[in-house]
Write a structure and sequence with these properties.
The chain is an alpha/beta fold. The protein has 2 domains: about 90 residues, Beta Barrel (Elongation Factor Tu (Ef-tu), domain 3), CATH 2.40.30.10; about 160 residues, Rossmann fold, CATH 3.40.50.80. It contains 8 helices and 17 strands. Strands 12-11-10-9-13-14-17 form a 7-stranded mixed beta sheet, sandwiched between helices. It has a 5-stranded antiparallel beta sheet with strand order 5-6-2-1-7. Strand 13, helix 6 and strand 14 form a beta-alpha-beta unit. Helix 5 packs parallel to helix 6. It is globular, with a radius of gyration of 18 Å.
Length: about 270
Protein backbone atom coordinates (compact mmCIF):
# COMPACT_ATOMS: atom_id res chain seq x y z
CA UNK A 1 0.00 0.00 0.00
CA UNK A 2 1.22 3.49 -0.89
CA UNK A 3 -0.07 6.57 0.91
CA UNK A 4 -1.04 9.81 -0.82
CA UNK A 5 0.79 12.49 1.13
CA UNK A 6 -0.34 15.44 -0.97
CA UNK A 7 -2.94 16.13 -3.64
CA UNK A 8 -3.35 19.22 -5.79
CA UNK A 9 -6.03 19.78 -8.43
CA UNK A 10 -4.88 21.89 -11.37
CA UNK A 11 -8.02 21.76 -13.52
CA UNK A 12 -11.29 19.81 -13.69
CA UNK A 13 -9.36 16.90 -15.22
CA UNK A 14 -5.76 17.32 -14.04
CA UNK A 15 -4.41 16.55 -10.58
CA UNK A 16 -1.18 15.76 -8.75
CA UNK A 17 -0.30 13.12 -6.20
CA UNK A 18 2.78 13.01 -3.99
CA UNK A 19 3.13 9.37 -2.94
CA UNK A 20 5.08 7.82 -0.11
CA UNK A 21 7.26 5.33 -2.00
CA UNK A 22 10.82 5.29 -0.59
CA UNK A 23 12.13 2.35 -2.63
CA UNK A 24 10.87 3.80 -5.91
CA UNK A 25 12.14 7.29 -5.04
CA UNK A 26 15.61 5.97 -4.24
CA UNK A 27 15.93 4.22 -7.61
CA UNK A 28 14.08 6.68 -9.88
CA UNK A 29 15.79 8.59 -12.66
CA UNK A 30 14.51 11.30 -14.99
CA UNK A 31 12.44 9.84 -17.82
CA UNK A 32 11.27 6.68 -16.08
CA UNK A 33 7.69 5.67 -15.29
CA UNK A 34 5.64 3.58 -12.87
CA UNK A 35 2.61 1.32 -13.21
CA UNK A 36 -0.22 2.17 -10.81
CA UNK A 37 -3.06 -0.14 -9.84
CA UNK A 38 -5.07 1.76 -7.28
CA UNK A 39 -7.39 -0.99 -6.04
CA UNK A 40 -8.00 -4.72 -6.42
CA UNK A 41 -10.26 -4.37 -9.49
CA UNK A 42 -8.42 -1.54 -11.27
CA UNK A 43 -6.54 -1.70 -14.53
CA UNK A 44 -2.81 -1.02 -14.73
CA UNK A 45 -2.04 2.64 -15.53
CA UNK A 46 1.42 3.72 -16.79
CA UNK A 47 2.41 7.15 -15.45
CA UNK A 48 5.69 8.96 -16.04
CA UNK A 49 7.41 10.09 -12.86
CA UNK A 50 7.06 13.86 -12.68
CA UNK A 51 9.39 14.30 -9.70
CA UNK A 52 11.14 12.24 -7.06
CA UNK A 53 12.95 12.90 -3.81
CA UNK A 54 15.08 10.11 -2.35
CA UNK A 55 15.59 12.00 0.92
CA UNK A 56 11.87 12.31 1.64
CA UNK A 57 11.05 8.97 0.01
CA UNK A 58 8.42 10.43 -2.29
CA UNK A 59 7.50 10.46 -5.97
CA UNK A 60 5.19 12.89 -7.74
CA UNK A 61 2.65 11.95 -10.41
CA UNK A 62 0.52 14.31 -12.48
CA UNK A 63 -2.56 12.57 -13.81
CA UNK A 64 -5.30 13.42 -16.29
CA UNK A 65 -8.76 12.00 -15.66
CA UNK A 66 -9.68 10.72 -19.10
CA UNK A 67 -10.72 7.11 -18.52
CA UNK A 68 -12.62 5.16 -15.91
CA UNK A 69 -9.60 4.37 -13.74
CA UNK A 70 -8.02 7.84 -13.78
CA UNK A 71 -11.42 9.41 -13.06
CA UNK A 72 -11.84 7.07 -10.11
CA UNK A 73 -8.31 7.87 -8.93
CA UNK A 74 -9.20 11.57 -8.88
CA UNK A 75 -11.65 10.85 -6.03
CA UNK A 76 -8.76 9.73 -3.80
CA UNK A 77 -7.54 12.29 -1.28
CA UNK A 78 -4.58 12.94 1.01
CA UNK A 79 -4.21 10.10 3.49
CA UNK A 80 -5.77 7.52 1.18
CA UNK A 81 -3.77 4.54 -0.02
CA UNK A 82 -3.37 2.97 -3.43
CA UNK A 83 -2.85 -0.76 -3.67
CA UNK A 84 0.06 -1.32 -6.07
CA UNK A 85 2.91 0.69 -7.54
CA UNK A 86 5.54 -0.95 -9.75
CA UNK A 87 8.69 0.87 -10.76
CA UNK A 88 10.74 2.67 -11.66
CA UNK A 89 10.41 1.17 -15.14
CA UNK A 90 11.85 2.03 -18.54
CA UNK A 91 15.18 3.50 -19.48
CA UNK A 92 16.26 6.77 -17.91
CA UNK A 93 16.69 9.75 -20.23
CA UNK A 94 20.18 10.22 -21.66
CA UNK A 95 21.32 13.53 -20.21
CA UNK A 96 24.70 15.12 -20.88
CA UNK A 97 26.02 18.68 -20.70
CA UNK A 98 25.12 20.51 -23.92
CA UNK A 99 25.40 24.13 -24.94
CA UNK A 100 21.69 24.67 -25.59
CA UNK A 101 18.77 22.31 -25.01
CA UNK A 102 15.12 23.09 -25.78
CA UNK A 103 12.61 21.19 -23.64
CA UNK A 104 9.01 21.22 -24.84
CA UNK A 105 6.03 20.09 -22.79
CA UNK A 106 2.50 20.01 -24.10
CA UNK A 107 -0.42 19.77 -21.68
CA UNK A 108 0.11 16.84 -19.34
CA UNK A 109 3.54 16.36 -20.93
CA UNK A 110 4.75 19.37 -18.96
CA UNK A 111 5.03 17.23 -15.82
CA UNK A 112 7.32 14.42 -17.04
CA UNK A 113 9.68 16.81 -18.80
CA UNK A 114 10.39 18.66 -15.54
CA UNK A 115 12.93 16.20 -14.05
CA UNK A 116 14.67 16.03 -17.44
CA UNK A 117 14.94 19.83 -17.49
CA UNK A 118 16.35 19.82 -13.97
CA UNK A 119 19.03 17.28 -14.83
CA UNK A 120 20.11 19.13 -17.96
CA UNK A 121 20.43 22.33 -15.94
CA UNK A 122 22.38 20.62 -13.16
CA UNK A 123 24.72 19.22 -15.83
CA UNK A 124 25.49 22.79 -16.92
CA UNK A 125 23.39 23.08 -20.08
CA UNK A 126 21.69 26.30 -21.19
CA UNK A 127 18.02 25.34 -20.91
CA UNK A 128 15.08 26.78 -22.82
CA UNK A 129 11.63 25.53 -21.85
CA UNK A 130 8.53 25.83 -24.01
CA UNK A 131 5.30 24.92 -22.24
CA UNK A 132 2.06 24.67 -24.18
CA UNK A 133 -1.44 24.71 -22.68
CA UNK A 134 -4.94 25.04 -24.09
CA UNK A 135 -5.82 27.95 -21.80
CA UNK A 136 -4.43 29.87 -18.83
CA UNK A 137 -6.72 27.87 -16.54
CA UNK A 138 -4.95 24.64 -17.59
CA UNK A 139 -1.48 25.91 -16.65
CA UNK A 140 0.60 24.42 -13.86
CA UNK A 141 4.21 24.31 -12.58
CA UNK A 142 5.34 27.64 -14.05
CA UNK A 143 7.32 28.32 -10.86
CA UNK A 144 9.07 24.97 -10.98
CA UNK A 145 10.18 25.49 -14.55
CA UNK A 146 11.34 29.03 -13.85
CA UNK A 147 13.81 27.68 -11.29
CA UNK A 148 15.69 25.55 -13.85
CA UNK A 149 15.04 27.33 -17.15
CA UNK A 150 17.44 29.96 -18.44
CA UNK A 151 14.58 30.98 -20.74
CA UNK A 152 10.92 30.10 -20.31
CA UNK A 153 8.29 30.46 -23.03
CA UNK A 154 4.61 29.69 -22.43
CA UNK A 155 2.03 29.32 -25.17
CA UNK A 156 -1.74 28.94 -24.98
CA UNK A 157 -4.04 27.88 -27.78
CA UNK A 158 -6.43 30.76 -27.11
CA UNK A 159 -3.84 33.42 -26.23
CA UNK A 160 -5.10 33.79 -22.66
CA UNK A 161 -1.49 33.71 -21.41
CA UNK A 162 1.90 34.03 -23.03
CA UNK A 163 2.15 33.56 -26.78
CA UNK A 164 -0.90 32.52 -28.72
CA UNK A 165 -0.51 29.39 -30.80
CA UNK A 166 1.32 26.08 -30.89
CA UNK A 167 4.66 25.26 -29.30
CA UNK A 168 6.17 24.79 -32.76
CA UNK A 169 6.02 28.55 -33.40
CA UNK A 170 8.60 29.57 -30.75
CA UNK A 171 10.57 26.41 -31.55
CA UNK A 172 10.97 27.49 -35.17
CA UNK A 173 11.91 30.99 -34.05
CA UNK A 174 14.62 29.69 -31.73
CA UNK A 175 16.05 27.49 -34.49
CA UNK A 176 16.22 30.52 -36.79
CA UNK A 177 17.98 32.62 -34.14
CA UNK A 178 20.63 30.31 -32.67
CA UNK A 179 22.26 26.89 -32.56
CA UNK A 180 20.21 24.24 -30.78
CA UNK A 181 22.02 21.06 -29.73
CA UNK A 182 19.01 18.97 -28.76
CA UNK A 183 15.24 19.14 -28.49
CA UNK A 184 13.22 17.04 -26.05
CA UNK A 185 9.45 17.01 -26.58
CA UNK A 186 6.80 15.32 -24.42
CA UNK A 187 3.07 15.63 -24.98
CA UNK A 188 0.35 14.42 -27.34
CA UNK A 189 1.59 12.37 -30.27
CA UNK A 190 0.50 15.01 -32.77
CA UNK A 191 2.55 17.63 -30.91
CA UNK A 192 5.67 15.48 -30.69
CA UNK A 193 5.45 14.63 -34.38
CA UNK A 194 5.07 18.31 -35.26
CA UNK A 195 8.15 19.21 -33.21
CA UNK A 196 10.16 16.47 -34.91
CA UNK A 197 9.14 17.77 -38.34
CA UNK A 198 10.26 21.29 -37.42
CA UNK A 199 13.71 20.09 -36.36
CA UNK A 200 14.18 17.48 -39.10
CA UNK A 201 15.36 19.86 -41.89
CA UNK A 202 17.98 21.27 -39.52
CA UNK A 203 19.30 17.91 -38.34
CA UNK A 204 18.71 18.76 -34.68
CA UNK A 205 18.60 15.58 -32.54
CA UNK A 206 15.05 15.32 -31.24
CA UNK A 207 13.92 13.04 -28.44
CA UNK A 208 10.26 12.18 -27.85
CA UNK A 209 8.80 10.23 -24.97
CA UNK A 210 6.32 7.60 -26.11
CA UNK A 211 3.51 6.66 -23.80
CA UNK A 212 1.27 4.41 -25.88
CA UNK A 213 -1.04 2.06 -24.03
CA UNK A 214 1.03 -0.30 -21.90
CA UNK A 215 -0.28 -3.34 -20.11
CA UNK A 216 2.46 -5.07 -18.14
CA UNK A 217 5.21 -2.43 -18.53
CA UNK A 218 7.96 -5.08 -18.74
CA UNK A 219 8.00 -5.99 -22.43
CA UNK A 220 6.09 -9.26 -22.02
CA UNK A 221 2.80 -8.34 -23.71
CA UNK A 222 4.00 -6.36 -26.73
CA UNK A 223 1.13 -3.90 -26.42
CA UNK A 224 3.39 -0.86 -26.68
CA UNK A 225 5.44 -1.90 -29.71
CA UNK A 226 6.39 0.86 -32.11
CA UNK A 227 8.40 1.03 -35.31
CA UNK A 228 11.51 3.20 -35.00
CA UNK A 229 13.43 3.35 -38.26
CA UNK A 230 13.86 -0.24 -39.40
CA UNK A 231 13.42 -1.68 -35.91
CA UNK A 232 10.44 -2.72 -33.82
CA UNK A 233 10.85 -1.51 -30.26
CA UNK A 234 8.81 -1.62 -27.08
CA UNK A 235 8.42 1.74 -25.41
CA UNK A 236 8.21 0.22 -21.92
CA UNK A 237 11.67 -1.38 -22.01
CA UNK A 238 13.47 0.29 -24.94
CA UNK A 239 12.06 3.71 -24.08
CA UNK A 240 10.04 5.64 -23.35
CA UNK A 241 12.54 8.02 -25.01
CA UNK A 242 12.90 7.51 -28.76
CA UNK A 243 14.42 9.30 -31.75
CA UNK A 244 11.60 11.55 -32.94
CA UNK A 245 12.91 11.55 -36.52
CA UNK A 246 12.66 7.75 -36.76
CA UNK A 247 9.34 7.03 -35.00
CA UNK A 248 6.51 5.91 -37.27
CA UNK A 249 3.90 8.24 -35.81
CA UNK A 250 1.15 7.24 -38.25
CA UNK A 251 1.39 3.62 -37.15
CA UNK A 252 1.59 4.57 -33.49
CA UNK A 253 -1.45 6.83 -33.64
CA UNK A 254 -3.47 4.09 -35.33
CA UNK A 255 -2.40 1.58 -32.69
CA UNK A 256 -3.49 3.90 -29.89
CA UNK A 257 -7.07 3.77 -31.16
CA UNK A 258 -7.43 0.04 -30.69
CA UNK A 259 -8.87 0.25 -27.17
CA UNK A 260 -11.17 3.25 -27.82
CA UNK A 261 -14.31 1.12 -27.89
CA UNK A 262 -13.60 -0.50 -24.53
CA UNK A 263 -12.59 2.78 -22.90
CA UNK A 264 -15.90 4.33 -23.93
CA UNK A 265 -17.82 1.38 -22.48
CA UNK A 266 -15.91 1.60 -19.19
CA UNK A 267 -16.45 5.35 -18.95
CA UNK A 268 -20.16 4.94 -19.61
CA UNK A 269 -20.52 2.28 -16.91
CA UNK A 270 -18.58 4.40 -14.41
CA UNK A 271 -20.85 7.40 -15.08
CA UNK A 272 -24.01 5.41 -14.34
Amino acid sequence: MYRILKKEVYSPVTYMWVLEAPDVAAAARAGQFVIVCHNETAERIPLTIADFDADSGTITLVIQAVGKSTREMMTYNEGDHIRDLAGPLGEASHIEPLSTVVLIGGGLGVAPIYPILRQFKLKGSHTISILGFRTREMMFWQERFSAYSDELIITTDDGSYGEKGLVTIPLQRLINERTINRVVAIGPLVMMRACAEVTRPHGIPTVVSLNPIMVDGTGMCGSCRVTVGNDVKFSCIDGPDMDGHLVNFDELMNRQKRFDKYEKIANKKYAQ
